[in-house]
Amino acid sequence: MRHNKFKVDALRLTVQAAHLPGGLHGLLRLDYADNGVGLTPQETRALADNLRAVRESALAGGENFPSDGRHIGLQNVYRRLILLYGERASIDVMPADREGFRLRIILPIDRRLK
What is d(CA 20, CA 33) in angstroms, rounded to the nearest whole number? Predict the structure, then answer.
């Protein structure tokens, strides 16, 4: 995982997974958190807006999405997930309590994929 906002000596990354009811086989929820410098509230809103634009573009069959050139890796991952899972995939930026960055990814569980 690459992240350019890690400027702490004791970096801590946490990824939690949970099975949720929903769909044919349920959903996979992945919660990511780190203790890096995080984003300002304005940066968080801008990233959330960019992710919404990625979603709308991918669901409409668009090849490109508007981007300010930041967080392009996350936007590309989201676009690929939507192309694979359609509207059932989601990525949401979560507000961080005091520090760092938080993200939630929800994907359908498809037992046919191996």
Answer: 19
The overall pTM is greater than 0.85:
no
Q: Is 102 helix (H, G, I), strand (E, B) or coil?
A: strand
CA distance 47 to 9: 25
Q: Give the pLDDT band of residue 89 (cuts 50, 70, 90).
A: very high
User: Which of helix, strand or coil describes residue 11?
Assistant: coil
Q: Which of 84, 49, 89 is nearest to 70 (CA)?
A: 49
Instruction: Report domain extents, the chain.
Output: 40-114
Q: Which residue in the block uniquely carries the two structure tokens 């994907």?
A: 107
Helix (H, G, I), strand (E, B) or coil at 86: helix
pLDDT digits (tens, 9 = 90+) for 46-70: 899 999 999 998 998 877 766 666 7
